[in-house]
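#onboarding

Welcome to the new folks! Below is a worked example of what a typical request in this channel looks like: someone posts a single protein sequence, and someone else replies with the predicted structure as tokens. Don't worry about understanding the tokens yet, we'll cover that in week two.

Example request:
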Amino acid sequence: MLDRALAAALILARLSADIALPFMGGMKPARLFSQPFRAASLREFVMGEHTTISWTGPNGKTFNPWMGCTKVSPACDGCYAEALMDTRYGKVSWGRGEDRKRTAPSNWRQPLRWNRQAAEAGARPFVFCASLADVFDNEVDEVWRHDLFDLIEATPHLVWLLLTKRIGNVLRMTDVMRHGSRARLPANAAVGATMANQEEYDRDRMKLWAVKQDREPLFTFASFEPLLGLVILDRHAPDWIITGGETDQGHHRARPSNPQWFRRLRDQSAELCRVYHHKQNGEWASVSEVEGPGEIFTFPDGRNVRRVGKRKAGRTLDGVTYDGFPTLAVSLKGEGDGRDLC
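Example response:
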């Protein structure tokens, strides 16, 4: 049965928005939550009003419209979402052919509240979507994605970070929801791709570049987490570079990242006029930065890292915290897109 209160709230949010969000070129409003669904009661897990993910910023949020996914990358080997929601709590089964579970209407109302708070504060907080799923998953009903984009458009004071491991699906999945003469990627959405190594960067960078050119997101970004090898960027690198080491998840032991891999991406970001953010070192840290006991791993270049645990490893690189963020205009009423990335 439709959640009519949520549909009404979305319509009110549209009508009270500070920027114009036209309905399909002046035609009737698009369907809102137009397909019945069976909600998953996971309030304690999916209502991400507060998150410790550094690249969402000091007031960042996470939002999960549904849960479940299939592993498609070496970066998925230690999937924290699977370890938590499947292995530990048994809330959803991971893998190809398994049902994705849409979250409760009460969860879908949260971004509307965040949007009101942001409008009152004159802020534009970041919302990571989705930490327990992939927005561009092939096995998600197209109508669910349509509903999510309605919600994103209804919350213009939020900056939505759509991070995917399926960047090759984005053009197609936004094209099928075309309205008017423009493909339907919400104007307040940024699009990012996970790239764990050089192979994935070489395979996906032009796909992300095409999204930038054809769909004009707020900005593009790449999550090099877990970083599993040296990556050489080029002029098609995304606007925002995020790096991070891996953490232990269930029976999966974190693979070490060479600190030099982080440094190279940091330095290349500066050379290419990209914004750089280092999220974490993971379970391992350079022996020169963290002293004490712990397993030692030596890379072929002779550099050594020590397993010290996520908290002790921290998120500094050569003693510096790299907290770069794209700069966006707070005002939604001015001209231009508000981008200032370098």
